[in-house]
Amino acid sequence: MEFNPGFDIEAKESPLNFQYGDQVFGAKPELRTIDAVRKSLKNPFAKGPKVLYCISMDVGEKKDLPLMKKRNLLFGAVTYAAGVVGDEPVRSQGHIHAISSSCNDSTCEVYEIWDGEAYIYMQESGKDDAGECYGVHAKAGDVVIVPPGWVHATVNGNIHKNMTFGAWCVRDYGFDYEDVRAHNGIAFFPIVKDDEIVWEFNKKYSSGNITIKEAREYPEFEIEKGKPIYTQFQENPDKFLFVSKPAIAKEIWESMKI
Ligand SMILES: O=P(O)(O)OC[C@H]1O[C@](O)(CO)[C@@H](O)[C@@H]1O
Q1: Cβ(98) to ligand 1 under 6 A?
Q2: Is residue 1 part of a domain?
Q3: Does the residue 98 lie in any domain?
Q4: Does any ligand 1 atom lie closer than 6 A to the CB of residue 95?
Q5: Cβ(149)–Cβ(181) under 8 Å?
Q6: pLDDT, tens only, 158-179
Q7: Is 232 inside a domain boundary?
Q8: For residue 235, what is the domain's CATH number?
Q9: Which positions fall inside the Glucose-6-phosphate isomerase prokaryote domain (predicted)?
Q10: Terminal Cα-to-Cα distance of the chain (whole angstroms)
Q11: Does residue 164 line the site of ligand 1, with CB under 6 A?
C-alpha cells in the first residue's frame, strides 16, 4: 500500500480480502455486492463488478483491543474495487451514522486513505433540501473527517485502481439509510467523464449545493499529518475520544469547516 497503516494489514485484490499479521485481530471481511446496493445507484440496472467493496469493521493490534473497547472506539478497513457501475465510479450507498446508545448522538468518522484515491462525499442533510454538499478529494496519507449527522458516501476516485482506507468509528455504530434511499441515493452522483469525476444533481432532491475540494489538515483535533491515525491512537489512546464522545467536541462541530 502507498501509505503504511501503522499495523500489519494487507489488502488483497482478487478476490477482495484483508490479510492480517500474527499480532493483528480481524474477522472475515463482509463483501458488498452490486446487487445489494442497486437502490442507491443512479441507474439501478447498471452493470459493474460483482463485488464492489470489502469491509473489515474491527481490526487492529491484539494488544490494543482493550484500549479501544475502554474508549468505545473501533477501527475499520475497507477496499473499494476499481471499475465502473454504469457511468458511476465504485462507491458506497450513502448513510448517516445512527444515534449510538452509548453517547445518545450520531458520531463522526475519521478516514485515512492508504492506497489509491478517494472522494469522501458529504451532504449536510438527507431531506429534500440536501444543503451544503462536498466532494473531498483525498490521496494516500490524507485524513478526512465526516461530522456527526452528515450523510456520507465513499467513492473510489480512480477507476483504474482499487482504493483502501482505514477509519476510526464508534464501536456501537449503526447506519441509517432511510433518507438516502427515500431519494434513490445521494444528492450528487459522481459520474466518470473522460476519466475524471464530475457530479450530477439527483433530481429527487429539491436543492443542494456542491463544493469540490482537496483534503485538509485537522489541527483542531491535533491530527498529525503523515503519521498513521492508528499510530496516533497507540501514542495517545485518548486522541480519538471525540469519535465515541462527540459531545466533548461540540464547539468544534458547531463551527467546523469541511
Ligand atoms: O453501507 P454503505 O453505505 O454502502 O457503506 C459502507 C461503508 O461505510 C463505511 O462505514 C464508511 O462510512 C465503511 O465501513 C464502508 O465503506
Answers
A1: no
A2: no
A3: yes
A4: yes
A5: no
A6: 999 999 999 999 999 999 999 9
A7: yes
A8: 2.60.120.10
A9: 51-204
A10: 27
A11: no
- pLDDT at position 31 is 97
Ligand 1 atom nearest the C-alpha of 94 is 3
Is the four-CA dihedral 70, 28, 114, 92 of positive or negative sign? negative
Secondary element (H or E) of residue 244: helix 241-244
Reported ipTM: the value is 0.93
Q: What is the pLDDT of residues 15-65, one digit of tens each?
A: 999 999 999 999 999 999 999 999 889 999 999 999 999 999 999 999 999
Which residue segment(s) compose the domain that 117 sits in? 9-255
| Residue nearest ligand 1's atom 16 by CA | 78
Q: What is the atom index within ligand 1 of the atom nearest the CA of 180?
A: 3
Question: Rounded to an integer, what distance in angstroms lies between the CA atom of residue 142 and that of residue 257?
Answer: 16
Domain count, the chain: 1
Residue pair 88/156 in contact by the 8 Å Cβ criterion: no
